[in-house]
Design goal:
alpha+beta; 6 strands; two-stranded antiparallel ribbon; 4-stranded antiparallel beta sheet
Length: about 280
């Protein structure tokens, strides 16, 4: 009887040990599974390993240095190209471009011509004393400012009708020949004087009216430095003969409005350069 009980006890103990061993093995397998899930994927090692991040930064820096770039500098963006300004061909606009390549409409005549209250080298109220109203007011302001500086200007020739320009150009051709005449006088329809926005000026004594000797005078220098403040430009400046098609004319000023005049003066541009059009071939 005692032997039987002892056998039962041994069998029970063996069963208990087997259960415990089975439970321990089960826990080990579960723990191993949890550890595998929590470990980072080998394919993402570069994202989580500080050593790899540092190595990537060093490689990038080395690449920039080899390419001649400063790795600490911020790349400078490329400037946007300046927009092209379309040539103004509206005869009524103060910024219209008029030259042998851009002619005025046939028989164009401004409808707002007035007589500016300024000094001229003649007394008659005739056609060439007139300008368009906006240009005339600007001319009055400019003459007044010049006198404050001790500079006394006088008008020589303002507006010319198409018929007047035709007669004038033909007279120059008869005197000097066509090839020479076109270097200093505009063919009909291409003269800025026909716009009513251009005028030839000189000193009050009129000694160098529309002549080369006007260049270098105190009046010419004052105009070159101050005309833009009143909306005028020296239309045919020195050194731009191959662009404008005309020799240097320090006496010929053209009204384009204050904003544009100041821009052209600051950048040293002619209207042809501003509008990026083909230079005038003479």
């Amino acid at each position: 009887m005692k032997v039987g009980k002892l056998l039962l006890f041994v069998m029970f103990l063996a069963l208990l040990v087997a259960v415990v061993l089975y439970f321990v093995d089960y826990k080990k397998e579960q723990l191993a599974s949890d550890i595998n899930v929590s470990q980072p994927d080998a394919t993402n090692e570069n994202e989580t390993n500080p050593d790899n991040v540092s190595q990537n930064h060093e490689n990038s820096t080395n690449d920039q240095e080899e390419a001649g770039q400063d790795p600490t500098s911020t790349p400078t963006p490329e400037p946007d190209p300046e927009p092209t300004v379309e040539p103004d061909t509206d005869a009524k606009s103060v910024s219209v471009i008029v030259n042998p390549n851009y002619k005025l409409p046939d028989n164009y005549e401004p409808d707002d011509l007035v007589y500016p209250e300024v000094r001229f080298i003649f007394n008659e109220k005739i056609e060439k004393r007139m300008l368009r109203e906006e240009a005339a007011k600007a001319l009055e302001s400019m003459f007044e400012a010049a006198e404050v500086d001790g500079i006394y200007l006088a008008g020589v020739s303002g507006y010319r009708s198409h018929s007047t320009q035709t007669a004038l150009f033909n007279r120059y051709v008869e005197r000097d020949g066509y090839d020479v005449a076109k270097t200093y006088s505009a063919e009909p329809g291409t003269s800025e004087h026909e716009t009513g926005l251009a005028i030839d000026v000189t000193s009050s004594d009129g000694k160098c009216a529309a002549q080369d000797c006007f260049g270098g005078t105190v009046e010419a220098i004052w105009l070159e430095n101050n005309a833009q403040a009143y909306g005028f430009i020296i239309r045919y400046p020195k050194g731009k003969e191959d662009i404008t098609g005309y020799k240097y004319e320090p006496w010929h000023i053209r009204y384009v409005g204050v904003e544009l005049a100041q821009q052209l003066h600051e950048q040293g541009l002619t209207l042809e350069e501003y509008y990026d059009v083909e230079p005038v071939k003479r």
